[in-house]
Amino acid sequence: xxxxxxxxxxxxxxxxxxxxxxxxxxxxxxxxxxxxxxxxxxxxxxxxxxxxxxxxxxxxxxxxxxxxxxxxxxxxxxxxxxxxxxxxxxxxxxxxxxxxxxxxxxxxxxxxxxxxxxxxxxxxxxxxxxxxxxxxxxxxxxxxxxxxxxxxxxxxxxxxxxxxxxxxxxxxxxxxxxxxxxxxxxxxxxxxxxxxxxxxxxxxxxxxxxxxxxxxxxxxxxxxxxxxxxxxxxxxxxxxxxxxxxxxxxxxxxxxxxxxxxxxxxxxxxxxxxxxxxxxxxxxxxxxxxxxxxxxxxxxxxxxxxxxxxxxxxxxxxxxxxxxxxxxxxxxxxxxxxxxxxxxxxxxxxxxxxxxxxxxxxxxxxxxxxxxxxxxxxxxxxxxxxxxxxxxxxxxxxxxxxxxxxxxxxxxxxxxxxxxxxxxxxxxxxxxxxxxxxxxxxxxxxxxxxxxxxxxxxxxxxxxxxxxxxxxxxxxxxxxxxxxxxxxxxxxxxxxxxxxxxxxxxxxxxxxxxxxxxxxxxxxxxxxxxxxxxxxxxxxxxxxxxxxxxxxxxxxxxxxxxxxxxxxxxxxxxxxxxxxxxxxxxxxxxxxxxxxxxxxxxxxxxxxxxxxxxxxxxxxxxxxxxxxxxxxxxxxxxxxxxxxxxxxxxxxxxxxxxxxxxxxxxxxxxxxxxxxxxxxxxxxxxxxxxxxxxxxxxxxxxxxxxxxxxxxxxxxxxxxxxxxxxxxxxxxxxxxxxxxxxxxxxxxxxxxxxxxxxxxxxxxxxxxxxxxxxxxxxxxxxxxxxxxxxxxxxxxxxxxxxxxxxxxxxxxxxxxxxxxxxxxxxxxxxxxxxxxxxxxxxxxxxxxxxxxxxxxxxxxxxxxxxxxxxxxxxxxxxxxxxxxxxxxxxxxxxxxxxxxxxxxxxxxxxxxxxxxxxxxxxxxxxxxxxxxxxxxxxxxxxxxxxxxxxxxxxxxxxxxxxxxxxxxxxxxxxxxxxxxxxxxxxxxxxxxxxxxxxxxxxxxxxxxxxxxxxxxxxxxxxxxxxxxxxxxxxxxxxxxxxxxxxxxxxxxxxxxxxxxxxxxxxxxxxxxxxxxxxxxxxxxxxxxxxxxxxxxxxxxxxxxxxxxxxxxxxxxxxxxxxxxxxxxxxxxxxxxxxxxxxxxxxxxxxxxxxxxxxxxxxxxxxxxxxxxxxxxxxxxxxxxxxxxxxxxxxxxxxxxxxxxxxxxxxxxxxxxxxxxxxxxxxxxxxxxxxxxxxxxxxxxxxxxxxxxxxxxxxxxxxxxxxxxxxxxxxxxxxxxxxxxxxxxxxxxxxxxxxxxxxxxxxxxxxxxxxxxxxxxxxxxxxxxxxxxxxxxxxxxxxxxxxxxxxxxxxxxxxxxxxx
Length: 1363
Fold this sequence. Notes:
This protein is α/β, with parallel strands linked by helices. The protein has seven domains: 39-307, PAS domain (Beta-Lactamase), CATH 3.30.450; 368-432 and 443-462 and 474-535, Beta-Lactamase (2-Layer Sandwich); 662-819, Histidine kinase-like ATPase, C-terminal domain (Heat Shock Protein 90, 2-Layer Sandwich); 823-833 and 955-1042 and 1051-1081, Rossmann fold (3-Layer(aba) Sandwich); 836-940, Rossmann fold (3-Layer(aba) Sandwich), CATH 3.40.50.2300; 1087-1218, 3-Layer(aba) Sandwich (Rossmann fold), CATH 3.40.50; 1241-1352, Response regulator (Rossmann fold, 3-Layer(aba) Sandwich), CATH 3.40.50. The radius of gyration is 66 Å and the shape is flat. The two termini are 118 Å apart.
């Protein structure tokens, strides 16, 4: 924009000179104007403020006069007389008194023009007499004003108002009519004034406020009281919004510049008249006030414009003198830009301008020289690209150098091959033959300078230089300057060019040579590289010929490799086929073993089962010899079963499906059990069998079953093959291994058989195989089991002298192999040893001798032997030496306190399992329990408290168990185990519910699942241990979670044992629970059926409940009672009674609803129920009770107490609670409907012997339906659905799995329970059968008792009708 408006320097200078002069003038003028405006505004506001004050004083003075006039009128005697007459008789307005009074009043009206009328008014505001006869009898505008004036006895000014159609406001002033003594009557004189006339002199005078000045008077509601200039006819009709009027009406005074009611900017002053509530505003338009100042400003701006023109002319003249030399300089620069490099500027003007012209001319000279050098460089560059060979390079280049530089002589020297000499290659103006070679190594002459500096060298010969001359037709000339240009390639000097001239070279020539030096080297490098390429191309052609020959040879070799690759692929395919054949062989082997197991177990089932049936049923009828025959049958059958198990174990080891169940054991103990089991056989043969353990052995972690099996095979073989002498079993420890040596004095083994005896079905040859029975599997199982456990077995033997088998096993067999922790076995975390009832000693640890004596006396009275220690070190020594049954420990002791003693006891393996009871003044129960204490007793200790604590340790017995598990199946499963053992059970499905039951019922034992939603098992355990009332309750964790080492350590101080939930098996879980109770020193209760059972009474009658409770408790029963069906349902969610006495008729939830809930839960489905009711039952209700399996029905009032107890005994004895049959049959799901069927058992079995065996085992208790193949069994089930199906899985026509699938697909048979009776006992067979839909699984051969118990869990025998 600036360039467009002021394109020339002259214009810009003129502009800025003018701006510099005018801007201060404009600023100064504006400042003066602003100052004068402020001054004028201030003066005017002061003036308006004075006018306002004057008008306010005038109005106040006028009001004072008006009040005085009204008061005078009210004091007139004629007015008083008239008022009294009119008050007495309003019709006396025409009387003499009224006439006299009117004369006075009209005289005042005529005398003062603003008076509109004067009236005599009664107290109620009615006009009695008025100068305006039209108003007589009417009421004044503001009647309340009359009351105020009469009450205050002073004149009162009323509010302004409009009367009728008048356009001007009226103002009333009332004064009381008084007697001469000052007492007035109840009437007043009211004077009405015309406000415009009254205030015209005061308000319409605008003196001192100019033409636009105006005085505005508003009432308290901001309405104008007089006419406004800007709004006609606005009196008391318009509410003004201007700020001054609002402030004045609101009681304020001041000045302001603002917008008035017309929307015009004004200067105003305002004030308030308190006695009337009016606001007074005096204002004048701002434009009128500032008009003189604006005229002065316009005059000033006119003078500034004239001055601006004069300044602009002067600036143009001055700018022209400054810019003229610069314009010439610009013109010369343009000529240079067009290529006229000889153009120069004439130096003139001031010294600065002359200096600028000289500098510009010098720059032009330099530019002219640079351009000449650039042109020379361009001409030389054209010749640099023409040469294609080294010989042609300098022949074309030297003439160009001479032409460009004006030299008279030019020579080129090139490095001679790989040598150090430079030889002349071409010359102009000189003879190459006379030129000498230059050596790189001597650094002489120009070459030495070039090699040293690597720059262009220049030389000017002195006056006496006669050696170098130019030959011309006119004679010889001495050169004035020599210039040598180096030529580099790859950073090395490879050539140089020398130029000579009779006069010094111009400066631009030197610049040209400097510029061309690098391109010259690049061009020389290109030419040299081209020479090298041509040479290499020639060599490459020779090499290519050789490569073609080699390629032909490679093609021949690749053909041979392809043939070899095809052969290798063929062999790989053969290997893959062989691998598939091996896998198929392995599969067929496993299938064979499975089939063989089935085929062997099928007849074996009949052998063992029938022999057992005969032995039991015919014990009285058979002779001793016949019983011996049965014993032989059973013994050989078990031997055959053992053989089958060995084969299956071997197959499992080879297939890698053998599960190892690790636990910590004493190896000497296992060895002793094996030796004891074979001692009878050894004695019969006259062989001495002994066990030698020369030193204590550490415990080892191993699969006990496998260890026992290996030792059984080794020791059994030694006894079998030893006819006389001895068999010695020796146990030693070496490094981290336990070594079992079995040495015998038997027949020995030949050296050639020492390796083969560990193979399957292999024995020593010759007489051994003929004289001794066996399959050759025992040692193979030992070998493979040892390797599987990370160990090995070896043998040394000498024929006729005996053998020594050495079994080496690591202390921790789980360290190397990936083994699975046992599903049903426990992982003890705080494994206490079961207390020995023969000797029970207690170690008492306390630094207070009196406390030791007191505790010792109490324990001695209870039958304990005691040891005592007064400090920590002695306590540790005695505990390790005597291993007492329990320890009582004080905490606050010198040297080593109780916490340190506790930690040392738990860290030492010999004392870690000793129960510790803390008896101390310290009540830090949480720390004690965390460190492993079984209880905390605060001092002073009482005998009763001490005995209660030790009663728990010594086997007082466990009666109440709390089962905590969110899984209903697992919760009911564990509860059933405890109920079978005669324990009472509490159930909790969440952490908070478990904590509540633990506090309220204080169970003797808690089984706890770790994985629960919300509050998990670990949190529950922490809360139990932190509560003093539950901290000492033993806890057994039963969980499906694989616990890490850190989790086990965390649990170690809070639980008694950890049992894995994976693959729960009834017998194994029960055994582990019994072991856990034994560790606590407890025993399971032993009670007869019906004695001490827990009975639940559900009765809404309190009297009946009291009678029943008394009768049952007197008979030794434990009784719980609830007062209705709703409370019974709540009770049964967490408690499992042994029997229920139920009333049918109850509010809200009746007895039938309770019965349905009881039978719907698998945990209480078999609980016997006796119904007591006063209701006469209908046949339908009888059938309903029969369907709900009610055992006893008692009519209230029909039985005596003794008969009632007898009925209870019968109820408890008619069925075994929680009968589950085989451990393989899981309880029925709570939500599954109970299947009735026709009461028969369908047996699908293709083996006739097994059919006979099964019927004999069941003993005719159930109707049996037989089917000999799968299709017949399916038809029989569909034609008459039985109550239970016993199904063999290996059947002709249709196999068991197909039969099972079709049964479950048919709605008519889908609910029939199916139990698999099969000889399939391989790993995974049980899980496969149960997953297919079977309700139970029993492997052949089975014991008759197992079959009977299994069938009884699904249907009752004949004759067991519930009602």
